[in-house]
Amino acid sequence: xxxxxxxxxxxxxxxxxxxxxxxxxxxxxxxxxxxxxxxxxxxxxxxxxxxxxxxxxxxxxxxxxxxxxxxxxxxxxxxxxxxxxxxxxxxxxxxxxxxxxxxxxxxxxxxxx
Amino acid sequence: xxxxxxxxxxxxxxxxxxxxxxxxxxxxxxxxxxxxxxxxxxxxxxxxxxxxxxxxxxxxxxxxxxxxxxxxxxxxxxxxxxxxxxxxxxxxxxxxxxxxxxxxxxxxxxxxx
Lengths: 113, 113
What we know:
Number of strands of chain A: 11
Number of helices of chain B: 0
Oligomer: heterodimer
Distance between the termini of chain A: 34 Å
Shape of chain A: globular
Helix content of chain A: under 10%
């Protein structure tokens, strides 16, 4: 059983399109995250939700909109895709309370052409 | 502004020897530190963590050392095995509040048979 699953694994799309990435966790965790790993390999947080409530919203363009229908799901919708959005996007979840660490999904490689 | 720094992008060691991966941080508010391991095309997986109230934590072949005064931590792998070849990310967080994980850029470890 996959703990944190995200789909699709690969996504190739043209500039200007709108796309979504879905994430689901079956760990019963309260908090979910989206991280972006850019071409320089930095893993940077974009958003976090705790029990469907937005907790962290880093300086991300408002073309990126997370949606959490319930605490087991956190989807990422991206409008008007740009070349610079090409990256690997990781979903993660954690139980609030520090050092338990995050459980990550396997990533979605987004390529904008 | 990199709050967590891994200054060695790569490290190569012989099987059976010790691997030492280093990490420095600048934010004195961090109180939990974690190491993640990442294979290609997979998400990072939690390896080991340490609270700021400790200076050492050991789990099998993996030991993390924390030097708070120097704002430095290191991961020791003894003995190193070819299966340990991966990218290792150092990460830190401040417990309470948003608890977002801040990652270093990663060090690619290669263990040669």
